[in-house]
Amino acid sequence: MVDKEIEQRVNIKFLVKLKKTATETFIVLREVYGKDALSRARVFAWHKRFSEGIEDVEDEEELNIDEETVRHSKHWLECQYFRGVTLCYIL
Q1: Is the backbone of residue 83 left (phi > 0), alpha (psi -120 to 50) or beta?
Q2: Which of 15, 21, 43, 79 could form a disulfide with 88 if both were Cys (CB 3.0 to 4.6 A apart)?
Q3: In 3D, which of 40, 32, 31 has the Cα closest to residue 71?
Q4: Which residues pair with 82 in a beta bridge?
Q5: Residue 11 sits in which domain range?
Q6: What is the pTM assigned to this prediction?
Q7: In the chain, which stretches have pLDDT less than 70?
Q8: What's the CA gap between 31 and 79, in Å, rounded?
Q9: Domain tally for the chain?
Q10: Distance (Å, whole) CA 22 – CA 3
């Protein structure tokens, strides 16, 4: 499981370099990893961290993610493409 988490962090770092928003990053990870994707709160925290120039993908101690936020972020976004528009809703 740890390897998949680090893999996702590397992907978040890559998407930040491509100027993707945290929401776009979360949607991409959800599409690729499904239920194994990091929570929305963790994706947003890592996105913020990489956006601020921090490069380390292994040090999670400094994230300081509020566990209440993590619990509430376990809802998944379902996205569908319709006529060139992405429609997302919370499951």
Answers
A1: left
A2: 79
A3: 40
A4: 85
A5: 2-90
A6: 0.67
A7: 1-2, 60-91
A8: 9
A9: 1
A10: 21
